[in-house]
Amino acid sequence: MRLFYSEDITPESQQIQLAEEDSRHCIKVLKAKKSDSITLIDGNGYRYQGIVEEPHPKRCLIAIEQCEKIERKRSNTIHIAISPTKNMDRIEWFVEKCVEIGVDKLSFFISEHSVRNKMRLDRIKKIAVAAMKQSINFYLPEIHDVMPYDTFLKEIARQDQQEQRFIAYVPTDSTAHLATKAKAEENYCILIGPEGGFSEQEVALAQSQGFQTVSLGENRLRTETAGVVACNILNLTHLMNRS
């Protein structure tokens, strides 16, 4: 199934013009003709069936014929907050894989040992959209821009949502693994630090906001790998409970 994404489409839309890049792909690459069927998503759970009304390679016009709400695959939410890596290719890989596996919120923070304090959020969102379409997912995760670590924790403290909170930090060999601490059907938020790790003060600050220290395994992981591993563990917790 080839999906096209539009952030402008709504369940009330009768027509939609594809973005120039999607128009070119639809007409030039897929060779779509007038009256051909096309499927669109809005990242909010709606799937739209339409037909090509004006097959223009720069502004392809689609007539919307049907709209259907697709229910989420999980009833809980997974929120991963991570420190951006020095190499942007790595954090982009992390975003791509987590969206494919299943994540609901992505946040980025600057901590004491972080090596990058800026990101192109438009680039991150583009990668997330591509991963959403590739994995035939109908929900685009919330993506929050880089903020200071303490600011992020203050934002978490203000939210009403009940969730289990974890920080990937291994002070002793007996630190519990995430898989043993995550409770099925709970909402989750997990902090993934930079490759220099969290400082003791940062860990203490997180613990004051209800974050539990957890291990992600015996091996030392890169930041982006740790993020993907955490995402997979939390998704498996849901799947194992459902089965």
- At CATH level 2, the architecture of the largest domain is 3-Layer(aba) Sandwich
Distance between the termini: 27 Å
CATH superfamily of the largest domain: SPOUT methyltransferase, trefoil knot domain
Strand/helix succession: EEHEEEEHEHEHEHEHEH
CATH class membership of the largest domain: Alpha Beta
Count, helices: 7
How helix-rich are the residues, as a percent range? Answer: 25-40%
The figure for the number of domains is: 2
The major beta sheet can be summarized as:
6 strands, parallel
Strand adjacency order, main sheet = 8-7-6-10-9-11
Using only CA atoms, what is the Rg?
20 Å
Mean pLDDT: 93
DSSP strand count: 11
Query: What gross morphology would you assign?
Result: elongated
Structural class: alpha/beta
Instruction: List low-pLDDT spans.
Output: none
CATH overall fold name of the largest domain: Alpha/beta knot
**Strand portion:** 25-35%
Protein name: Ribosomal RNA small subunit methyltransferase E
Subcellular location: Cytoplasm
Catalytic activity: uridine(1498) in 16S rRNA + S-adenosyl-L-methionine = N(3)-methyluridine(1498) in 16S rRNA + S-adenosyl-L-homocysteine + H(+)
GO biological process, one term: rRNA base methylation
Give a short synopsis of this structure.
Belongs to the RNA methyltransferase RsmE family. This protein has 243 residues and is an alpha/beta fold.
